[in-house]
Amino acid sequence: MTAHAWLLDTGLATPMAIGQRELLQIITAPQTFSVPLCPEYARHVLFWQQRMVPVMDFGLRMGANPHPQNLLALVGFHDALTGVIQLGAIVLRQAPRQVAVNDAQALQAEDLPVDWRALAISCFAHEGSAIPVLHLGKVFAAVH
Amino acid sequence: MNNTQVALKIGTLMLILPQSEVSAVESCLDVLPANLAQPIANVVGTVAFAGQRWPAYCVSQELSLMATMPQERRACVMLANGNGYIGLLCDDARVLKTLSTEQNYPLPSAMAVHNTPVLGLLRFEDGLACLSDAAHLCSFVQQHPTIQ
């Protein structure tokens, strides 16, 4: 079976993936607003269609350098806690790339670095790397 | 139910809390420097209210506690903390009688940190305002690690 995913470049050595239907829109040059005291990687919000959206620099969260927030992936995901569709925005270094993934590319969670395992729902092999598929509900969940 | 709010301007930060939780607005000229002989953690001075002197706190627009008071701070709002009052310095305080609460958003869970006084967010004028209340502001300034 073949499925499609989006590869996101967040500034890390390896891209990460999200499901095809989780990417709602690419936002360029967004107007974002800073919120005091928040973690450095999740300090901004934007407004989109009457909804407030947290902006996450996932690369920064995982050790990359900060990056200007001029290209964002707007994502939607089902929040198991609230049962509603939640929105989030992920800071990108370049536009996402769509890839086809088949069953033969599936990897075990142990193939990912330890830090990634709690945030990935699965992973697959692509161009010699283990690509984590983000569990967006966990990525945008409370850290503290 | 009285939904009147008060907007505190602190640099570029707009902090909005229920008017019912603001006991008074004093002038920062009434804030006397902290007593070095009996220092209270993070306090920039004391302010007279209701027959006593109460600790006054100063925060930056990033909500970092400040050891000194910038010139822009001109007002001191008095907030009840259960055991008395604290003063919180701001550039100005204004009453918002027509504030729409329909576009209030809770702080996204990924952005929350322990003891934050920011409970929610609101589109406000050309920017963003942070929603808070007296209890969380008092807890924040009084439980914050001591500034050096």
Q: Return the structural class of chain A.
A: mainly beta
Could you give the order of the helices and strands of chain B? EEEEEEEEEEEEH
Low-confidence stretches of chain B: none
Total helices of chain B: the number is 1
Strand order of the largest sheet of chain B: 9-1-2-12-11-10
Q: Main beta sheet of chain A: strand number and arrangement?
A: 6 strands, mixed
CATH superfamily of chain A: CheA-289, Domain 4
Largest interface: A-B, 22 and 21 residues
Number-wise, the strands of chain B total 12
**Total domains of chain B:** 1
How far apart lie the N and C ends of chain B?
43 Å
CATH architecture level-2 label of chain B: Beta Barrel
Provide a count of the helices of chain A: 3
CATH-level-4 superfamily name of chain B: CheA-289, Domain 4
Shape verdict of chain B: globular
Structural class of the helix and strand makeup of chain B? mainly beta
Task: Write a structural description.
The complex is a heterodimer of chains A (144) and B (148). Chain A has a single domain, classed as CheA-289, Domain 4 (OB fold (Dihydrolipoamide Acetyltransferase, E2P)), CATH 2.40.50. Chain A is 8% helix and 49% strand. Chain A is built from three helices and twelve strands, in the order E-E-E-E-E-E-H-E-E-E-E-H-E-E-H. The longest helix of chain A is centred in the middle third of the chain and has 4 residues. The radius of gyration of chain A is 15 Å and the shape is globular. By secondary structure, chain B is mainly beta. Chain B has a single domain, classed as CheA-289, Domain 4 (OB fold (Dihydrolipoamide Acetyltransferase, E2P), Beta Barrel). Chain B is built from one helix and twelve strands, in the order E-E-E-E-E-E-E-E-E-E-E-E-H. In chain B, a hairpin with a 4-residue loop joins strand 7 and strand 8. The interface between A and B is medium-sized, with 22 and 21 residues.
